[in-house]
Amino acid sequence: LVMLRFDLRRQSSLPEGGMIFVANHPSATDGFLIHMVSRNQLNVLITAKAFTVPIFGWFLRKVQEIPVPLKEGSSALEQARLHLLKGRSVAIFIEGHISPAEGGFLPPRSGAARLALSSGAPVVPVGISLPREHCLNLRSRITGGELSEARWYLRGPYAITVGLPTRFEGNAEDRAHVVRISEIIM
Questions:
Q1: What is the pTM of this model?
Q2: From the centroid of its chain, how far is CA 5?
Q3: Which residues are within 8 A (CB) of 171 and not within 5 positions of it... i.e. 6 or more apart?
Q4: Is the terminal CB of the chain with fewer CB neighbours within 10 Å at N or C?
C-alpha cells in the first residue's frame, strides 16, 4: 500500500510552453511522482530497461515516456527536443541513475544541459527529498535473466521543491560549456 505525505512547493509560477524539469533521483518512485510538478503534459526520460517489463512497458509507451538506452542517450534527447518543440514539457533525472543509498548525489550527466542548449527551453530545477531509510529495495529479473535492483519509496513524507526557470545559451557541442551548465543545473 502506497501512503505518501506530499509537500509540493513552488518558488515561482511557471512560464507557458515546454520546459525541462531536471531533478535528483532518490528512488524509482520519482519517475511517477515527477508528473506532479507540471500542470501540462509531461514526458519523463526513463531507462530503456523499464520498457521491456510486460504491462509496465506497455503503460510507459502509452503515456509517451521517453526510453533512454543504457549506452547512448542521443536518440532520447532528440525525442525530448521534439516534445519541447510541440510545447510539451519533459523531465530528466540529471544523475542518470538513482542517487546513492547512503545519501548525496551522483555526478551530473550532460543530457539536461545539451537538451537545454539545443532546444532553448527553460530548465526548471526540481529537488526531491525523502527519508532514505523508508525505501524498499526490490530485486527482479527484467531482461535476459539479468538481476536488477530498484529502490522504491512507498510510505512517508515526500517533498518536492520546484525552483526558478532558467534559460541557458551556448553551443551544445562545446564539451567544456556543457559540463559547466550541467554543474550549474545540479
A1: 0.91
A2: 21
A3: 117, 177
A4: N
Q: Are 150 and 53 in contact (CB under 8 A)?
A: no
Q: CA dist 13 to 23, 90, 163, Å?
A: 18, 17, 9
∠ CA 127-154-10, nearest 5°, is: 25
Which whole-number Å values give the CA distances from 146 to 43, 49, 53, 68, 143, in the listed order? 27, 11, 12, 18, 6
Query: How far does CA 58 lie from the centroid of its chain?
Result: 19
C-alpha cell at position 157: 513524507
> In sequence order, what are the beta bridge partners of 10?
162
Query: Is the distance from CB of 29 to CB of 154 less than 8 angstroms?
Result: yes
User: What gap in Å lies between CA 170 and CA 146, rounded to an integer?
Assistant: 40
CA distance 119 to 18: 10
Sorted by sequence, the CB contacts under 8 Å of residue 79 that are 6+ apart come out as: 66
Question: Which mean pLDDT values do the consecutive 10-residue runs of the chain (186 residues) have?
Answer: 83 93 94 90 90 87 91 86 94 92 91 96 96 79 63 89 96 96 96
The Cα 62–Cα 51 span in angstroms is 11
Structure confidence at residue 146 (pLDDT): 65
Query: For residues 67 and 48, is the Cβ–Cβ distance under 8 A?
Result: yes
Note whether 136 and 142 are within 8 A (CB): no
